[in-house]
Write a structure and sequence with these properties.
The complex is a heterodimer of chains A (113) and B (114). Chain A is built from no helices and 9 strands. Chain A is globular. Chain B is 0% helix and 49% strand. In chain B, strands 2, 4, 5, 6, 9, 10 and 11 form a 7-stranded mixed β-sheet that branches. In chain B, strands 1-3-8-7 form a 4-stranded antiparallel β-sheet, with no helix packed on it. The chains are: A mainly beta (113), B mainly beta (114).
Chain lengths: 113, 114
């Protein structure tokens, strides 16, 4: 399985944008890029996913490099509620066993008031 | 919709005891899975199921059994609990088909084995 690399931790200030990077240099053409986050003492929560093009939803934006070897999760205005561990995960396209998610240690985001 | 529910929320076992962690979802999802999360670590996949009657092993299946007799339920059984199984256990589900990305996770069961 292709591997992702994320910084262990990042810090931001409330109401400022946050850019969370992820490197995945061995990504294959059939891998989706998924982002999940885990708030303290809760289960993971889906944030966003993409394949080749940049994606936006109500929670965040996902910017994918042209060569797909890296991506960036963008929180446009961080709030205290966004403090969490953010996981960047590659998932092989297709169904069945390809629905498995492989979690790394993620990036711990601290948001300062 | 209640989403993914897990019971119990907390459990303390003695070494050698057995128990079943319950997981249920009301979204008619075909795919369900169990993860464990140790302190400071990411989640690791224990077992998963792509539909009723079909299960398969994940990354860390030893010491755990599963079965899937209905679409809604996916219980995880610990046959003889060991201290190394002290962890937080999460159940997840998603629909099959299409390219929808979202897996839904339950709130977790915190298990301590003494």
């Amino acid at each position: 399985d292709a591997k992702t690399t994320q910084p262990n931790s990042m810090e931001s200030n409330e109401e400022e944008p946050v850019h969370l990077p992820c490197n995945h240099s061995t990504i294959s053409g059939t891998d989706y890029i998924h982002w999940y986050r885990q708030l303290p003492s809760q289960g993971p929560e889906y944030v966003i996913h993409g394949l080749t093009s940049n994606v936006n939803n109500r929670m965040a934006s996902l910017a994918i490099a042209e060569d797909r070897k890296s991506s960036t999760l963008i929180l446009h205005r961080a709030t205290l509620r966004d403090a969490a561990v953010y996981y960047c995960i590659l998932r092989r396209r297709g169904g069945g066993s390809n629905y498995k998610l492989t979690f790394g240690k993620g990036t711990l985001l601290t948001v300062n008031p | 919709n209640a989403g993914v529910t897990q019971t119990p929320k907390f459990q303390v076992l003695k070494t050698g005891q057995s128990m079943t962690l319950q997981c249920a979802q009301d979204m008619n999802h075909e795919y369900m899975s169990w993860y464990r999360q140790d302190p400071g670590m990411g989640l690791r996949l224990i077992h998963y199921s792509v539909g009723a009657g079909i299960t398969d092993q994940g990354e860390v299946p030893n010491g755990y059994n599963v079965s899937r007799s209905t679409t809604e339920d996916f219980p995880l059984r610990l046959l003889s609990a060991a201290p190394s199984q002290t962890s937080v256990y999460f159940c997840a589900s998603r629909t099959s088909g299409g390219e929808a990305g979202e897996q839904f996770f339950g709130p977790g069961t915190r298990l301590t084995v003494l």
